[in-house]
Each structure stands twice: as C-alpha cells, then as structure tokens.
Amino acid sequence: MAPTRLIAAACVVGLWLLLCLWARRRAQRQETQLALAQQALEAPVPEDTLLVAYATQTGYAESLAEQTAESLRAGGLTVRVAALGQLDLARLAGYRRMLFVASTYGEGDPPDTAAAFSDQMLPAAPDAGRRGLPPLAGSQYAVLALGDSEYANFCGFGHRLGEWLHAQGAAPLFDLVEVDNGDPAALRHWQHHLGLLAGRSDLPDWQAPAYQSWRLAARERLNPGSQGGPCYLLTLTPPADADAGAGWQAGDIAEIGPRREAGGPLHAHREYSIASLPADGAIQLLVRQMRGADGALGLGSGWLTHIAQPGDAIDLRVRVNRNFHAPADGRPLILVGNGTGLAGLRALIKARRAAGHRRNWLVFGERNAAHDWFCKNDIAAWHGDGTLERLDAVFSRDQPERRYVQHHLREQADTVRAWVDDGAAIYVCGSLQGMAGGVDAALQDILGDARLQVMQHEGRYRRDVY
Ligand SMILES: Cc1cc2nc3c(=O)[nH]c(=O)nc-3n(C[C@H](O)[C@H](O)[C@H](O)COP(=O)(O)OP(=O)(O)OC[C@H]3O[C@@H](n4cnc5c(N)ncnc54)[C@H](O)[C@@H]3O)c2cc1C
Ligand SMILES: Cc1cc2nc3c(=O)[nH]c(=O)nc-3n(C[C@H](O)[C@H](O)[C@H](O)COP(=O)(O)O)c2cc1C
Asked: Hey, which of 20, 22, 118, 203 has its CA 20 to 30 A from 340?
C-alpha cells in the first residue's frame, strides 16, 4: 500500500476511534447526569419544596416547566423540576404542592416519555376511603395542559392527569389551564397564578400582549360606604380603527397593561372579566381596588381605579376564554358569583337576554345590601322583564352569622337539583379563595361528586375564578 494511503487509512481509523471515545464519554456523561438527577429526586424533600413535573415529546413542556420553576424561585420558593417519567405515586406523595406541565398525543395519550407513568394512573379503588386516607390527601396540584384544538382529544392527557390527581386525594390549587398551540395569553394566565403562589405581583410577562390603545371613558364607584375595598364600574371605549362589533364574547377576559404613576409601562399584565357586550359599544369592567399589606396600591387595580383618569389611554387586549362562553342553546343557566365576579355573569346575562333565553337564575353574594348591591338597577330590571327567572342576593354581613352563596345553594338544594335535571348548566365567577371551593363542596353534596364530574366533562359546570 502506498504510504499516503496508509496514512489516510490510519487517519480514518484514528478519527473513528476518537469518535467512539467521544460517543462513549457522552453516553457516560448522560448516564451520570441521569443518575444524579435520579439521586436528587430520591434525596429527602426539604419541607415546602414545590415540585414542577413535565411530560414532553419535543422539549416544549420541559422548557415551560423550567420557566415556571424560575418564576417561583424568583419569589424565594424551593422548587424541584422532574420529568414525569422519573416519578411515581410514592414520590409524588413526598410533596405538598405540585405543578404539572403535560402535553397530549394521539387519542388523549401522554408523550412517550410519560407512558410508563400513565400506565400507573389506574382508577382509585372504590373502597380506598375505607382503608384510610387516599395517597395524595393533603397535597395540592395544578396542571398546565398543552395541546392543539385541531385534535379531537384536546389536552386529553392533561385533563386525565388532573382527574387522577384529584382521585388520589389531592386538591386543585386552581383550575387546569389549557394551552392551544402555545397560546401566549393562556401562558400569561398561568403566570397570574404563579405570581400569587410566589407572592410576587411584578414578575414580567413571558411574552407581552399585543395591546391596543383603548380609552377610559367613565369610572363610577359601585359601593360607597362599603366595609370592603372600593369597587368601580369602568367603561372603556375602543380605538377608532378597531372592529368593536366583533371584538369579544360574553365570558372573555380583558388583559390590561398597567402603567406607573408617571405613565411608564409595567411589564406584568392583569386580567379582568368583561362585563359588557360589543353591542354596548364599550368594554365594561368591575374592578376592586387592592392594596398590599404595606398599604401600597395594587399594580393593576391601582392603575385602573386611581392613577388613570377618564380620558386617558389604557393598554388593553381581549383574551378569548372559550371555557366561559354562554351555552350554545337555551338550556337553563344557574349563575353563581360574588363581588367583582358579577362582571363575567353580567356579560353572560346580557348575552342570554339578547338571544331570548330566559331560564336564568342568578345567585349573587356580597357584604351588605345597603352598600354592595353592585349594578342593582340593571339586575332588578332583568328580574322585572323576565330575563332572570330567579334572583337571589346573599349578603354575608346583614345578619349575626356569616351567610355566603354556598350556604344559599345548600338551602336551595331541591331547586338546584330540579334545574340540573332540566339540563341546566352552572357557571361560577369570582373569588378562588373561599367562594369557589365553598360552592364546589356545596354542589358535590347537592348533586354528588360523580354527577358534578360528568357535568364538568360535558361543559355544564364552568368556572372563571381568580
Ligand atoms: C381570569 C381573571 C379574571 C379576573 N377578573 C377580575 C375582575 O373582574 N375584577 C377584579 O377586580 N379583579 C379581577 N381579577 C383579579 C385581577 O386580575 C388582579 O389580580 C387584581 O386586580 C389585583 O391585582 P393588582 O395588580 O391590583 O394587585 P397586585 O399588585 O398584584 O397585588 C396587590 C395585593 O393584592 C393581592 N392580590 C393580587 N391578586 C389577587 C387576587 N386575584 N385575589 C386576591 N388577592 C390578590 C396581593 O397578594 C397583594 O396583597 C381577575 C383575575 C383573573 C385571573
Ligand atoms: C403527532 C402529534 C399528535 C398530537 N396529538 C394531540 C392530541 O391528541 N391532543 C392535543 O391536544 N394535542 C395534540 N398534539 C399537540 C401537542 O400536545 C402540542 O403541540 C404540545 O405543545 C407539544 O408539547 P411537547 O413538545 O412538549 O410534547 C399533537 C401533536 C403532534 C405533533
């Protein structure tokens, strides 16, 4: 063989050997990393560690899990991130709080990396209660479900995971968030909840909304003299070039870009339920002015109720919130809400009125009838003209004992069952703390857990709670 050929052959062999060595080292490094990750997972969980688990095919859910963990760490929380495939029920039981970011494939299936975990997601044994507490009793969870609404089983695995966690005894921190094709607005909604968990209201949006410039046309105090925080009805008119007629549906949300006292934008959005219809020619909001423990105004509510003045521009974008759109048909509707939760219900009642659907029952709760009967004239008129077949207002502080909407529903259990037997849907809007849980527990007792779950599957039990 000619020496040049020999040298070339030696080079090829040498290169091949180097490649083999590199590949072996890489595999060893990966094995070590996996072993370390597994070791880290098996290490005792420091108290109050929050688990962020992900199920991913291409790595998108993993990157969102990392971003989620970063937001929580910014609030000083201890967070562990893990692939769902590295976990099982026993490991989950070591955490008090767990967030899951999970995508869906095929017929509502998990991504391949979570197939083994999914195989363990068996229905809870019917007699589990008799043998003691379920395995995840005392834990709390939330699910960010990634999917694509072009598929029949939209976010199917995320929903299945949430139902399984619930069946294992864990309680939801907040409602499942569906993300259609990476929708940044849905991710901002997830971020709202992360901010509350982290105790940080100033975390910048992962992706800023594309705001339009609306105008604050009017602001009216709804509860002068109230024991509660001041609450306002805001009227916002659209930019001249906006197609105001097609802009939103009852149930949709306004994303607002708050500004500082001196006008500079903040980089964290705020969400408010829209209380009006496009036919009103304006977006109306019911906004409660919030203050922190130090007395400082909330960023969003402070901007809308104090800093911005009538005539000022307001950065606003509509977030479509399909989950809270009115039923497509005239089925009976039970609308339950407290405080500013009346906003979303008000838009729904207006939509039902416009469609001529009159089997509507409003159950509204606030503190005192004398000061907190928000939008009383509208509501009385709708009761008078038959838009509201039934109207119940529950004022918690007008009698010695506290009475809330959930107490009223329990007292009206027979009527609730009769409406549901007639095909009614139940829509709940307002406080996540207190009201939403109390109403859910009341409905479980009135209708039974299984029936309420079926209603949820069928879209007959919907919530917009915050
Ligand atoms: C889908 C959705 C719909 C909403 N609709 C309305 C609505 O119609 N009307 C309305 O007034 N608000 C509504 N909110 C709440 C609103 O988005 C803000 O969270 C609220 O205005 C407080 O924000 P802030 O910037 O003024 O206060 P921040 O600067 O965020 O915080 C100020 C203080 O308020 C506390 N806080 C912040 N957010 C909440 C909260 N959600 N619940 C209890 N305490 C809180 C903080 O811990 C802090 O002490 C909605 C939220 C969501 C997610
Ligand atoms: C082949 C394929 C099948 C999918 N099937 C579904 C499905 O049945 N339901 C759904 O909601 N999304 C489905 N999706 C969308 C994914 O869940 C979505 O793109 C998700 O963001 C992917 O996240 P990941 O890359 O982290 O796994 C599918 C996507 C692909 C590519």
From this structure: 203
Closest ligand 2 atom to the C-alpha of 61? 26
Per-residue pLDDT of 329-374, as tens digits, reads 999 999 999 999 999 999 999 999 999 999 999 999 999 999 999 9
Q: Whose CA is nearest to atom 6 of ligand 1?
A: 272
**Which residue is closest in CA terms to ligand 1's atom 29?**
298
Q: Supply the range of the domain harboring residue 409.
A: 327-465
- CB 272 near ligand 1, within 6 Å: yes
Q: Give CA–CA dist 222/200, Å, rounded.
A: 29
Type and span of the H or E element at 157:
helix 156-167
The whole-angstrom separation of Cα 321 and Cα 189 is 11
Read off the pLDDT of each residue in 138-157 and give the average, rounded to a whole number: 97
Residues 315 and 331 in one domain: no
The closest-lying atom of ligand 2 relative to the alpha carbon of residue 54 is 26
Q: How many domains does the chain have?
A: 3
Average pLDDT over residues 216-222: 98
- Which bin fits 71, alpha (ψ -120 to 50), beta or left (φ > 0)? alpha
Pairing verdict, β 171-172 and 140-147: parallel
In the DSSP assignment, the letter for residue 241 is: T
Phi, psi of 426 (to 5 degrees): -120, 125
Contact 166, 134 (CB under 8 A): no
Tell me, yes or no, whether 294 and 435 share the same domain.
Answer: no
pLDDT band at residue 416 under the 50/70/90 scheme: very high
Task: Report in angstroms the alpha-carbon separations of 261 from 132, 234, 296.
Answer: 55, 19, 12
Q: Is 273 in the pocket of ligand 1 (CB under 6 A)?
A: yes
Residue 400: give its domain's CATH number. Answer: 3.40.50.80
Domain's final residue, options 280, 300, 319: 319
For the Cβ of 344 lying below 6 angstroms from any atom of ligand 2, the answer is no
Which two three-digit tokens encode residue 243? 């197609």
Question: Is 128 a residue whose pLDDT tops 60?
Answer: no
Q: Looking at the structure, do residues 337 and 309 belong to the same domain, yes or no? A: no
For residues 316-323, average pLDDT: 96
- For residue 138, the 8-state DSSP code is T
Q: Which pLDDT score, from 0 to 100, does residue 246 have?
A: 55
Q: What is the dihedral of CA 53, 56, 59, 65, to 10 degrees?
A: -20
Chain-centroid distance of CA 406 in Å reads 21
| Confidence at 380, pLDDT banded by 50, 70, 90 | very high
Q: Could you give phi then psi for residue 255, rounded to 5 degrees?
A: -90, 130
* pLDDT tens digits for range 279-290: 999 999 999 999
For residue 147, how far is its CA from the centre of ligand 2 (angstroms)? 5
Report in angstroms the alpha-carbon separations of 138 from 95, 164, 204, 388: 10, 15, 31, 40
Beta bridge partners of 215: 237, 313
